[in-house]
């Protein structure tokens, strides 16, 4: 087994042309000074201490929370009272069980969400009010990823048979549309150029070196064919419309992925190290805005102390300084007010604020 040393990447180039050169006219560079700064915002404790949280989503008067270690994979929080209203879906590998819900997918129905188990490659459709009143709830629908769609990351709901997601296996697109019945796949966008000195792409059927190195979170606009793609270990966000890149945003800090490449005998795996800088920890969207939980730190700091707010044209609006580490969040907009729910990294407490 051999190892490639990690290297600091100052520019995205190899022996191939920089893919970003074709998008100069739609590229925007932002810095922290591009945002209107909001400091000293009030933080309110809501009551439950939830520990390690993978994802959160507001649904009507409930907060749906995916936890990492509880016996049930979902906790349902009643927002007005701040109390736990119920626990859903046993943790396991059975037909109606899950191991880790990495993504909670809202739908056009405020009572219904889909949940994605990234470990099992499994999707479940959940009717929350029905589940809370059932003695033993069985999901409305389930389906598994196929060999053609394996490695999906950060999926979005389009309708009950059509989804879109990033991929750990596909190096020829940024994201792809797929059908729950595997009736076809449509690819969209492209990945950035490999960094200088990176190993060659892995053989087909293995994790894509490029897709894994440029991992990202993606969310679909609630009603339109718009997607926001926020990168995890480089300062970059892309906005797509109709499957085509319409805006490339770089910043607010300029850094490229920093990895040690580990060879396992068949393929090279990008491995995060103590110098890896994290950018966008989590991404949430509403009809009007895009919200990023931002880190900008290394030493495995997959948490953030800032929320960056953009509109869907890619214009930087607000930067919310939280003054503590938060590992997960979600947003609900009511009128001109944004209600933000967060999980404190150190205490596991659920808190809220508004801007």
Automatic annotation (TrEMBL):
Organism: Chitinophaga niastensis
Name of a matching Pfam family: TolB_like
Protein name: TolB-like protein
